[in-house]
Design a protein that fits this description.
The relative contact order is 0.10. This protein is 0% helix and 39% strand. It contains no helices and 14 strands. The chain is mostly beta strands. The protein has strands at 12-17, 23-28, 33-37, 54-59, 65-70, 75-79, 96-101, 107-112, 117-121, 138-143, 149-154, 159-163, 183-186, 193-196. A hairpin with a 4-residue loop joins strand 11 (149-154) and strand 12.
């Protein structure tokens, strides 16, 4: 199913899948959550006051819950997703644009558009682009299957790898991209990744 053709209070900004790939959630910038297939609805921020729009959703490893993250770094947990902290109410150099969870669901990372990375729970910090000059804003983050590394991707397709995440190439050197990159997704064996525009 989808929300295509239905009236929405805000645009859809993120999607997460269940552990067996037979369901998914969509989240709107207002925090509204929509579930399909075997994805259960555990709650949302729709209709509640937000300090910043929601920018992403990440599911727990067993699919029994999810986290929402706002551009201000606020984190909201539902179902069996535990709250481990956030950047909400703290001074940020740039808006939060993405979130990723550890393999056991015991922690998560937040990433800002400047490449700054913030770790909570059992998520370890392996480095960031927060103090470096980047050509275009960071738009997404993905972790290795063991949770000991991560990739960041910029809107120009530039890829930055940390921890045990290997660099396999990027689109950052190309200047004739039509549109921009919005997310990165690794292969299950961590032997490569896809960039989506």
């Amino acid at each position: 199913g989808s929300m295509g053709g239905k009236s929405l209070n805000a645009q859809i900004v993120g999607m997460a899948k269940t552990s067996n790939n037979t369901g998914y959630w969509l989240v709107g910038s207002d925090g509204g959550v929509f579930s399909f297939g075997d994805a259960h609805y555990y709650g949302s921020m729709g209709g509640k006051h937000l300090n910043g729009p929601i920018v992403g959703i990440v599911s727990t490893p067993d699919g029994g819950g999810y986290w929402l993250v706002g551009s201000d770094g606020g984190v909201f947990s539902f179902g069996d997703a535990h709250y481990y902290g956030s950047m909400g109410g703290k001074q940020l150099n740039a808006s939060i644009v993405g979130m990723a969870t550890t393999p056991d669901g015991g922690g998560y990372w937040l990433v800002g558009s400047d490449g700054g990375v913030f770790s909570f729970g059992d998520a370890h910090f392996y480095g960031s682009m927060g103090d470096k000059n980047i050509n275009k804003p960071i738009v997404g983050m993905a972790t290795t299957s063991d949770g000991k590394g991560y990739w960041l991707v910029g809107s120009d397709g530039g890829v930055f790898s940390f921890g045990d995440a290997h660099f396999y190439g990027s689109l950052g050197k190309y200047t004739d991209l039509v549109g921009w990159i919005t997310t990165i997704s690794p292969t299950p064996d961590n032997g490569g990744y896809y960039l989506f525009g």
